[in-house]
Amino acid sequence: MPPVIIGSFEEFEKYNGQSLGTSEYFQITQEQINIFAKATHDHQWIHTDPERAKTEGAFGNTIAHGYLTLSIVPHLWEQIVDVRNLKMMINYGIESLRFANPVLVNSEVRLAATLKNVANLRGTVKAEVEVKLEIKDQKKPAFTGVLIFLYHFQ
């Protein structure tokens, strides 16, 4: 499904309370996990040691860092919404973030998004987006939360 195109507050407002869509699936690989571990200095063995994770871990394999799964949101978000006519976009906050299910290495995930609320704050658009990172063939999502973006349109 092509992304929803939004170029103004009024166009955002049309989607208030509605689903914005779902991204394509994205596979989480061990290489991505290792690169993320190096970048964040989080080398916990449940993420980076496949052999130990298989024998000692609770999941039978390595799992992605929770914050790695969160860090792919911009890539997935761009597949859902194409915001145009922008001066600037700012990640403003995250509310009610819950990591509900581990993402095993080589799992595929996708983002589902619903516009919870949009407001015009003296020319700055504040969008609150309910998100769920779904794991292919799993009932329980990797995480849920509300992302808050500030959009400054031209």
UniProtKB/TrEMBL annotation:
Residues 13-132 form the MaoC-like domain. Transmembrane segments: none annotated. This is Acyl dehydratase. The lineage of its organism: Bacteria, Pseudomonadati, Bacteroidota, Cytophagia, Cytophagales.
